[in-house]
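Dear colleague,

Following up on Tuesday's group meeting, I ran the structure prediction for the three-component complex that the binding team flagged. I've pasted the input sequences exactly as they went in, so you can double-check that nothing got truncated or mislabelled along the way. The structure tokens for the whole assembly follow below. Feel free to forward this to whoever is handling the docking comparison.

Inputs:
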Amino acid sequence: MKFNIYDLTSFNQWIDKLLYDNLPAFWAMIIEMTLIGVAFLLFYAVIGLFLVYAERKVCAFIQNRVGPNRVGPYGIFQTIADFIKLLMKELIPINKADKFLFNLAPFIVIIASFMAIAAIPFGLGLHAIDFNIGVFYVMAVSSLGVIGILLAGWSSNNKYSLIGAMRSGAQIVSYELSVGMSLVTIVILAGSMQLSTIVEAQRNGWFIFTGHVPAFIAFLVFIIAGTAETNRGPFDLAEAESELTAGFHTEYSGIKFAFFFLAEYMNMFIVASIAATIFWGGWMPFHLGPIFGEWTLGFNNVMDYIPPFFWYIGKTMVVIFIMMWFKWTFPRLRIDQLLKLEWKYLLPINLFNIILMALIVLMGWHF
Amino acid sequence: MNNEHLIEKIRSFDSTINITQGPQYLTLDVAPESLSKTAFMLKNNPDLSFDYLFCLTGNDLPDAYSVVYHLESIKHRHCIVLTAKAASRENPVLDTVSNIWLTADFHEREVYDLIGITFANHPDMRRIFLDEEDWVGYPLRKDYTDNNIVSR
Amino acid sequence: MEDLILDNNTIQEEEYIINMGPQHPSTHGVLRFKVSLQGETVLNVQPHCGYIHRGIEKMCEKLTYQQIIHLTDRMDYLSAHINNEAVCLLVENALQIEVPERVKYIRTILSELTRLASHQLWWCAFGMDLGALTTYFYGLRDREPILDIFEETTGARLLQSFNTPGGLMNDIHPNFIKRVKDYIVYFRKKLPEYDELLTGNVILQERTNDVGFLTLEDAISYGVTGPSGRASGFACDIRKHHPYSAYDKVDFKEILYTKGDTFHRYKARVEEMWESLKIIEQLIDNIPDGDYTAKMKPIIKLPEGEYYQRVEAARGEFGVYILSKGEKYPYRAKFRSPNFSNLSAINKMAAGYKIADLVAISGSLDLVIPDIDR
């Protein structure tokens, strides 16, 4: 068995060979898909638990206090305790709510985020679905989450939930545009929508550096629009406690609320992953291009010592920290100011940026 | 303006007002019919211009229900107290001043709620603290009794 | 927008009525707003108070003047010391008792510390209402040393009842002066952080600029005093215009703006924090020696008549009206609460704006509900 932490493709091929050699093709395929599914579920759950804990600790750090530190060493089992509590809560049924849609809504949100995460490259050889239209797929699939939110608001039979869901829906649909277009800017630079190609193309330097000005602008726009997409940070009017109770998930209790909660954190993780993959090189270590001189080869070798998976996780965690920093520092924007920001500021900046990037690529003015 | 000028000015408008000097402020005592007119004059006369009503109190005096208005002029920085007693004890009614000083809106509702004086022409005469539908009686009256009052 | 502002009771057919409160994270107490909306725009706001009406005025008719002081704490509990001072000053002026200079200085210093603590709590709650959840912790962190100073000298953190007619209950603790001086140095460094975190923030300015206007005539007519009124240009600072205690011996500015929107109400309070620091600094080193109380009879009876005392509480003009018939209990005690008058203007300020603005406007008015209901 060749378990090379730097390149897990050989490991994957070994498992593949093992299964197909010993089982009929149909069963081998089923078992392979199950293995991948289970691996993803575990990853999803662990990251979800970790993110909730991280948010509480980061929030406490910014607010000059300690955060959870009782349940387990440094409070690492706090989220597990919270989940057990949520599992044991009574699921309060609603009288006049549409029961089927009411129960379906959280699942749609989870499924949408799950499908998006499947397409992201975690490392060399750790790429579950590698479409040639990877970026487009991730964008399309993560927008399905808004259906879940609108269903949740409508089927709760509650004025506040409805208002919250409508606001949320308007916000997400508007910011989709900005997210999409900032990604298109990088697709122009990379020349392909396939995620593995985009990562490979950053071997000589991450796009945020090689694409200088337009890539940097695209990154800023993406971070702002991505935070707004996930209803987080200064854009969380839809679920702000001091505005209209808890918005679209007011009527959900227990495990269903946990699903929404988890899906929000996973969406944040997905936005951060995409930002890390497309702008900061994904699992590609920090390389310097050969234009800086001969010594860069040695430098790149040193950078390669850290396995790709850890590069990816590190970058994603930095972006997540930035997003959490936003949330705990700024006041909230009002719904009309939020939409104004998107339609009057971010959209024109994006369009201008795309033209600028196209010009730079045509003229070859990038690194 | 000091007190002599104030007294002169007010007497020149209406000599039937009873003016006394209290421990702190000059006090005017008007009949309930001329309350509205006097209040209007106190606010709008440019030499008096009492535009700030800083306290509106309802009283349950032994002989009548009365309302005390404490007024200040921001321009001239003088203060005065206006009092009016309601004519009847069974059905105390006074004119509203909420069209003159907007703060009186809430304050008169409080007086109605706790003492029971009705204010004619008030835009929204209903109770403010106690339950509008169910509460009977006016707690700040001296003869108010309730099963819940504990005497010492 | 004029045609959208309705008077108190008109309800139209397509309106959507929403209740904010009485349990709501933003109303800072038990206050219910009945808001009628058209889409996101507020047409009419009707406050319903009385959820915490405790009958304080009725209780005062059976209590002696020293006992009334303990009830005044419980109204605007964030300006507890200042409310206590109002009753004491009323009794002292009515009986024409001269309190020692030392008492005046200490009362003023404690009043300004109370005002500072109250504005800090307002700042943290205001940020939290608008979504900047971190401000809550920064404000409370800076408020804790003040509460510790109070506890050491007066025995209580929030509701001190340290004043008594004639003077104070006890002399100040030996550590008091040093701790207050250290605190001033500490807070002077922290207050610019408040400006960096909230005042200069673009999102806050977008949320509060040009929102919730209150003109000068309306402020005077509705009786909106305190920093909320001064932001509209209403020169109502009792400390300046009708000075009491040691306020005539200190030099400070009355913060007046003319615009009257939410942002200027916010700024007026932040600037007042600086002025409070200035006042404490001028007094803390010069406290004269002497007695901490004047000689008073144990049973206080005010001569017959009506008395009124005004002080500047953290939220506006607090007044005590006592009608005495010469007995040891007042015949009628009425408290002019600043928050009651401030609240009466909310329909004027909030009508025509969005519902998210209602939260910002009521936060900038700095309401303390027990003061409204008394």
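The longest helix of chain C spans residues 101-130.

Cheers,
M.
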